[in-house]
What we know:
Elements: H1 4-7, H2 30-38, H3 42-45, H4 49-58, H5 73-97, H6 106-119, H7 128-136, H8 141-158, H9 172-188, H10 195-210, H11 214-235
Amino acid sequence: MLTRSILHRISIPTSRRCLSTVQSQPQSDPASKLLKATLPFVPQFGWTMESIVRGARELGYPSVAHGVFVNGEAGLVDAFLKQCRQKHVATVEKALIDDEFKTLSTPEKIKKITAMRLDLLKPYAHRWSEALAIMAYPTNIPMSITHLAELADDVLFYAGDRSPDFDWYINRAGFAAIYTSTELFMTQDKSPDFFETARFLDSRLNQAAQLKHGKQELDTMLGFGAKSFLGLLGTRGIRV
């Protein structure tokens, strides 16, 4: 999702600064209604103005209603990621109430909570590379950083991470790199129910847990995520 220099900036205190910002949007909110109407068109038309316009037509809105999403396609992606966070947090909190994580170790919790988030991308996975490309434009980088930082904070907080020490595989920058590379892998995964993506995530988390020299391996992981992402952008004719 982000270049190496940006990934190095993803490090948020364990005080839950981000979680307090999770707010549900009323379903009657114009943006929420338009998002709901637009998403069914994304698998066919992508994260584009075409999808937004078709969603607006479904609601009987005038064609100019696409202005509900500030910055057009970027606004659509932003609205979707905000919705994903709300759904993800609600799902994880329900799992906590139901004691689904009670017997799991911290690494196992990280894997399960991350998988819950990836589940929300499955209907749009083959189009998600388009969203990643949109988020890579310079004007959209702040939005990208915010969403990735909040995700890292959510996952590690709910997994029980309270350590202020540098234990890199549960460091937010390290997780951001793992998640970014997993998202990229998912966009190319053709296996049933994204089975190979689950294996890829498991492999990355296991690798992280076994590393002994935190800073050096964090740099390696960040470099991998950045290199993979830049390669994806290159195939789409985008230079960063």
